[in-house]
Amino acid sequence: MTGNAILESLFRRQMETWPEARQRYDGLKEAITKEFNLNGMTVRAQFNPARAVSTLAVTGREATSARPCFLCGSNRPAQQEALPFTGKNGRQYEILVNPFPIFPVHFTVASASHIPQRIAGRFPDMLLLAETFPGYVVFYNGPESGASAPDHFHFQMGCKGFLPVETDFERLAPVTVMRPGEAVIGASSAYIPGLPVITAGDMPSAATAFLRILQSLPASPTSGEPPLNILCWKEKDTFRVIIIPRKAHRPSCYSAPEKSRVRISPGSADIGGVFIVPVEDDFRRTDAGVLSTIIGETVGPSWQPAVNVGLLKAENMDIIFDGEFSVTAHTGCRSGNPPGEETVSIMDGKAVWRGKAYDRLKFEAASGFTLRRVKIGIDFHWEKEEDQAFNGSLEIIPDGGGLTAVNSIPVEDYLVSVISSEMNGNAPEEFLKAHAVISRSWLLARPTLGGHAPSSPDRAGEGTGQGRAGNRIIRWRDRCDHSLFDVCADDHCQRYQGMLRAVNGNIRKAVESTRGLVLTSEEDNTICDTRFSKCCGGITERFSTCWEDKDFSYLQPVRDYCYPEIPDFSEESRAREWIMSRPDSFCNTSDKSLLSTVLNDYDMQTGDFYRWKAVYSQAELSELIRSRSGIDFGSILSLTPVRRGASGRITELLITGTKCSVTVGKELEIRRWLSATHLYSSAFVTDTEGYAGSHVLQDGKCIGIPARFILHGAGWGHGVGLCQTGAAVMGLQGRTFEHILYHYFPGTRLTQLY
Predict the structure, then answer these.
(1) The pLDDT value given to residue 437
(2) 152-156, 215-219, 392-396, 585-589: segment of lowest average pLDDT
(3) Is the pLDDT of residue 375 over 90?
(4) What pLDDT, on a 0 to 100 scale, did the predictor assign at position 314?
(5) Fewer CB within a 10 Å sphere, N or C end of the chain?
(6) How many whole angstroms separate alpha carbon 526 and alpha carbon 179?
(7) What is the mean pLDDT of residues 122-135?
(8) Please, are residues 182 and 205 in contact by the beta-carbon 8 Å criterion?
């Protein structure tokens, strides 16, 4: 017998043997309802006097301790039959027909033991119920969010086809925010915008996704659990979960004066689209405005994703805790550790702390911690080590002979640090807002967070792609999927250099004023992969010039000025003319006071990066290319652009030497080969000077070997997406952050995720 059939059999028996319950279920068939449209979804108000017991119940600690627990077996009606159910790890439950129904078929799933209503550790049981009984929606009301028995753990189940959020799930139109494993976490954009929505093909992925949401919600000081409701069901092969963060148990209209009172105490079913009204006068007063107010006062989609940031990889880690901290390991939790410095080292593939070895260690420090000797600017000219302070948790993971430090922190706190690490907080306000939006969008568009999975093997694994065809090497290094964390803390992803820099009020204000805002594509409603660089040089670049051979509608060439003309660089003479001139552009500025607000001190070591020059002797360039490429070209004869992008950046460069010739690409690889760190950009033209000898070609022709190479260049960075310098100038000129974003990312719209 299937799970659904077992429940149907139980329900039929109870209707035959329990007259009081049958009477209430029969009464439901005659229940009066009203329908309303709330932000794209049709919901109902149901006049249900029998629910007065639950809706009007006093659920405080004193009230519940003073009455017998109606879910304990010794206090139940004699006619109420219990169906045993075993959850994960052997947890025992009893399935009961609910005698005060909302659904046409309604069950309570009570813990076999009298323990408080807390979801931590029991969400897998909820998933198992949804899988075992696929004809039902399983729901959970938190102890401060509608549970009429907060002292006794229980779920509830109702037949499918009743709740609007289940029958019209697609109307929620969730925008993908994160992709933990095989699960997808979205944020609803209709009905109640910002609700976290999980879809997953298996229970472990769904449980992992739920844990990420639960950990990011603020816990109640009373219960220790975030106030929330949960709805869960299985649709064919997919689990669907809606989490409803709460900011109040009851709305103001619940206790309003008699003439305006509406006693709706919303729980999962109500917010799922069927609002239960047990008093007739209240039902008459219920309308769309009342329901909207109830949702606005009780539902708080304040959830934000938590991001796991890889901070450091080393054999030994020194950590200073500013206050007491707790440690979680495979042996359990150790709390109340005094502040001070701790050391974790690697030995035999284990993390060793205080003389004991662990598979993993997780530190929770309410007052924050400092991690010593964090390396920043890796492989760039500003590379250095520094001590950095962080909030959130710190996990130490043994990995390949070393230890990896991972900081878990809410996205909005992460962004404050990122923008503080990227630039000075005295930058124009609208520019800072624009940067908050694109930093948030870039993060949540990652394949490991909300973005699409890699579309080709070249972007998987280490995140590199290369093709060798004879003397052609094409390689790019994109935002690879880190295996132990979501993003790294250095320029490879986004600069995240702790909370010491995150003290500027302007940056915090910019992040808070754009909280949850991302750019989404008008083409497919996905979060935009919003790239940015220091200075585009006058024209922004296409995605495919720098990375995989694909393009996005919102990452197209944009003339960084008030008019749209973009020169055609298919002829090299036009590229030379562009790069050797200084056309008017937003980013064509030498305003050091402005640049000092956009750039950090180590970035300001650079002079003019709108147009720049690099000079190499023959010996310097030949040795540089040999050491950076691993190929002995002999003496370098020429650097010849084979293909340029829309901004003038070279995407394929032919390097000719006395021993061999190789075409190299893409943009970043060219920059790597031509600099000890990274060339400012690949938008350059080359002149040669002097004579350093001659070389005889195979056909007998003799050509001169240049003594010096002079590279004349434009811009700093890959040039794709937002130009930080240009955007700062636009902000200084009075343009809004919306104007800035739509200038650099055409075909997009701002979307409030949470």
Answers:
(1) 97
(2) 215-219
(3) no
(4) 86
(5) N
(6) 13
(7) 97
(8) yes
Burial (CB count within 10 angstroms: exposed 0-12, middle 13-18, buried 19+), residue 736 = middle
DSSP 347-415: ETTEEEETTEEES-EEEEETT-EEEEEEEESTTSTT-EEEEEEE-SEEEEEEETTEEEEEEEEEHHHHH
* Whole-angstrom distance, CA of residue 154 vs CA of residue 286: 29
**Mean residue pLDDT across the chain:** 88
If you write DSSP's letter for every residue of 566-603 in order, what string do you get? ---TTSHHHHHHHHTS----TT----HHHHHHHS-TTT
Q: Environment class of residue 700 by beta-carbon count within 10 Å: exposed (0-12), middle (13-18) or buried (19+)? A: exposed
Cα dihedral 687→567→467→634 (10° resolution): 0
As a whole number of angstroms, the distance between CA 219 and CA 167 comes to 31
- Neighbour-count burial for 174-213, b at 16+ CB within 10 Å, e otherwise: bbbbbbbeebbbbbbbbbbbbbbbbbbebbebbbbbbebb
- pLDDT score of 183 more than 80: yes
At residue 364, φ and ψ (nearest 5 deg) are -115, 120
- For 195, the 3-state DSSP assignment is coil
Q: What distances in angstroms separate CA 521 from CA 152, 205, 392, 518, 530, one per listed residue?
A: 46, 27, 32, 10, 10
**Six-digit token string for 383:** 């590379």
Q: How many CA atoms lie within 13 A of 314 on its CB side?
A: 17
Of 117, 112, 62, which Cα lies nearest the Cα of 87?
112
User: How far is residue 521's CA from residue 103's CA, in Å, rounded to a whole number?
Assistant: 39
Task: Determine the 3-state secondary structure of 38 from DSSP.
Answer: strand
Residue bearing tokens 């008030």: 562
- Segment among 141-150, 250-259, 372-381, 488-497 with least mean pLDDT: 372-381
Question: Which pLDDT band, with edges at 50, 70 and 90, does 467 fall under?
Answer: very low
- In sequence order, the 6+-apart residues with CB closer than 8 A to the CB of 185 are 176, 177, 178, 179, 196, 197, 198, 209, 212, 213, 305, 450
Strand partners, 463: none
d(CA 137, CA 131): 10
Q: What is the pLDDT of residue 57?
A: 54
Q: Work out whether the CA dihedral 419, 424, 425, 428 comes out positive or negative.
A: negative
Q: List, edge to edge, every strand of the sheet that includes 661-665.
A: 464-468, 472-477, 661-665, 650-657, 636-644
**0.85 exceeded by pTM:** no
Residue 323's pLDDT is what? 87
Q: What is the pLDDT of residues 601-613, one digit of tens each?
A: 555 555 678 999 9
Dihedral sign for Cα 615, 620, 626, 632, please: positive
Residue with tokens 């938190």: 142
Give whole-number Cα distances, 147 to 24, 76, 167, 263, 639, in Å.
Answer: 20, 18, 24, 16, 72
Q: For 409-497, where are the alpha helices, taking DSSP H only? A: 411-422, 429-444
Which among 664, 661, 652, 648 is positioned nearest to 714, based on CA atoms? 648
The model's confidence at residue 504, banded by pLDDT at 50, 70 and 90, is: confident
**b/e per residue, 270-293, with b = 16+ CB within 10 A?**
bbbbbbbbbbeebbeebeeebbee
Q: What is the pLDDT of residues 473-493, one digit of tens each?
A: 999 876 555 778 888 877 667
Q: Is the dihedral of CA 117, 147, 125, 308 positive or negative?
A: negative
Q: How far apart are the first and last CA of the chain?
A: 43
| Maximum Cα–Cα distance across the chain | 108
pLDDT (mean) for 655-663:
95
Q: Measured on CA atoms in the order 51, 56, 61, 64, is the torsion positive or negative?
A: negative
- The number of CA neighbours under 13 Å toward the Cβ of 579 is 27
DSSP codes joined into one string, 627-694: HHHS----SEEEEEEEEE-TTS-EEEEEEEESS-EEEEESHHHHHHHTSSS--S-S-EEEEEES---E
- For residue 6, count other CB atoms closer than 10 A to its CB: 15
Distance CA 681, CA 604 (A): 17
Output the pLDDT for position 501.
57
